[in-house]
Amino acid sequence: MSIPSDPDQLRRDRDRTREELGRTVEALAEKFDVPGRARARAHQLRERAGEATPGVLRSHPVPVAGLGVAVALVIWLIVRRRS
Fold first, then answer.
1. Torsion angle of alpha carbons 26, 27, 29, 33, nearest 10°?
2. What is the pLDDT of residues 33-44, one digit of tens each?
3. 35 to 7, 31, 38, 47, 80: CA distances (angstroms)
4. Per residue in 15-70, pLDDT tens?
5. What is residue 1's predicted lDDT score, i.e. its pLDDT?
6. In a designed cystine with 9, which of 4, 21, 43, 75 is the match (CB 3.0 to 4.6 A)?
7. Distance from first CA to last CA of the chain, Å, rounded?
8. Which DSSP category does 3 fall into?
9. CA distances (Å), 59 to each of 48, 54, 62, in order?
10. What sections of the protein cross the membrane (predicted)?
11. What is the 3-state secondary structure (H, E, C) of 4-28?
């Protein structure tokens, strides 16, 4: 590739290169932002769980009720032992 001698073409090339470099830096920063990516993934999982919960409650009411009773029992036992 030859270097253009036209100053306007040089400026356009420079601007295009800056834009490409900026996009590359942003992509790398996003890739290496592990805490940010973890937060985003946790948010996605919370949304999916929230969407699935009503369906699970409707389709499996007895196991869900049993789970609620088990959790209440565990909490009651913990509180009772601390008293």
1. 130
2. 999 889 999 999
3. 44, 10, 5, 18, 39
4. 999 999 999 999 999 889 999 889 999 999 989 888 877 887 788 889 889 999 99
5. 61
6. 4
7. 81
8. P
9. 17, 9, 9
10. 62-79
11. CCCHHHHHHHHHHHHHHHHHHHHHH
The DSSP string of 37-65 is HHHHHHHHHHHHHHHHHHHHHHH-HHHHH
Q: What is the pTM of this model?
A: 0.41
Q: Are 57 and 64 in contact (CB under 8 A)?
A: yes
Determine the Cα–Cα distance for residues 25 and 19; give it in Å rounded to an integer: 10
Contact (Cβ atoms closer than 8 angstroms) between residue 13 and residue 4: yes
Residue type, 25: V
Q: Which two tokens stand for residue 45?
A: 């999982």
Q: Residue 34 is encoded by which pair of tokens?
A: 């592990």
According to DSSP, residue 2 is labeled: P
